[in-house]
Design goal:
This protein is of the alpha/beta class. The chain has 25 helices and eleven strands. Helices cover about 50% and strands about 10% of the residues. Helix 3 packs antiparallel against helix 4, helix 15 runs parallel beside helix 18 and helix 18 runs antiparallel to helix 19. The relative contact order is 0.12.
Length: about 550
Amino acid sequence: MVYNFFFGNKQAQNTPQNQPIPGRESEMIKGKSGGYMFAAGIWRTLRRCLLIGTGNGSYYATKWELTNDFVDVLEKAIAEDPDRVAQEIVYASDGRSINNSAPIWALVLLSMGESPAAKKAFQAIFPQVIRTASHFYEWMSYTKSVRGFGKVVREAGKNWLLQGDTQALAYQLLKYQQRYGFSNRDALRLFHAKPQTEGRDLLFKWVVNGWDELPPAPPTAALNQIWWYEWLKRNPDRTPEAISQGRLTHEMAAPVGKMDVAAWQLLFEEMPIGALLRNLGSLTEIGVLAYCKTSNRNLDRVAKIINSKEHLRKGRIHPIDVLKALKTYRSGGSLGKSSKTWTPVPRIVDILELALEMSFETIEPTGKVFMHAVDISGSMSSSTVSSINLTCCEIATTMALVSAKAEKNYMIRGFSTEFISLKINSSDSFSSAMKKASNLNFGGTDASSAYKWMIKNKCYADVICFWTDCESWAGYKHPSQALAEYRQKVNPDAKAIYISLVANNITLVDPKDPNSWDLAGFDPSTPRLIQSIASGEL
């Protein structure tokens, strides 16, 4: 069956997979690779787009092509059921999407829905999706580019600035003073937010005019951080004092203060998990996390924060965030655009390895036999999801290993036009597993090669998991046909799960097959869903 709820052009050579299955033409569509797959449908495609995003494109399609497809499916979904679209946006935004950009983009499109229900749904979920001033400026940027600031948009923006706790808003407007071509001052002027309390009036006056003279003390408790920020601007040599007394974050202190080791040590001691993951390299370079007298205490704090399920969940830390941090930190600064370099501390690498496993939802062993088939074709090594070139193949290997670590009976192999051993097992670190898989990227994509090898070798599996972009084009049999043959010759009860790692509109799941599932990759719940399907709970 097709499991709807769980869910950023090169032409292939002529093969049987480049033609639809006879008699099934109406159910199949041509993928970007030239191969024919089953249509994923608008709701599964929407879930993929929200969780995976379209900003990096894929091997077979540019980011513009994928984004245009995202817009098309969004418009159809909004016309059909705007409330369901709103639910999908909130689901993705709550720490399940690799970042909040795709949900924010979808929120803008929802505000453009023609029905009153669409506009009502937009207003209802706005504060759940737009949680920070950075999100707010990004939403403003997207809104300006595609629709303009009409009545429903102005109302949402004004309410965001006027509702809630003044101290919390002051924190946001100070921490994120400008992003995406907009500033906090632009927001106030655009949405004509008129403060209803004295505290918020003082906050808005600071945003618009600043302080020519520093008051002798914070005007209100809600403006305490702003007062210390302004004090630091006038006393940059006393940065540690301002950080300590004003509880300033690095975004507040760094632009105006003198950032020495003492200042960074104070910031580190209060640094939340998201900022800590992003700054591990910098903290190592300047000595806060290098081996020294305070090293054990500081490294203990890193472990306490990063190896905590509570901190990971409250911080909405996606497994891909941890994976990016691991790959970046291990590189010593050779990845990305930063000019900083550092010598990685082995214990921090170990902490990140553990955090990566913990960032996925808890899974229980099922006792079933698993075959994890990782797509190692050229397209998976060319499709990236971040500025540090984290590839879909690396992500697929990581997620497969998470599932395998929970089970005793498993195999992890890789397919392109052949199905080969990756020599990965549960004792591998995520780093070593990614390296093994990445070193073997080659060739075209034929998902049926996995079934062919399993039939030839009479390899029994209860559950066969494919981690792929679904662009299977190079084989002489469609994967659904090869699965039917495997069930006939080896295991009639075999379940097939296809985990898609690209936001496209195709699937390898035959909609008439009750024992095949389609899941969207990058969702932290994916390994748990796989175990639930294997155990018969779903």
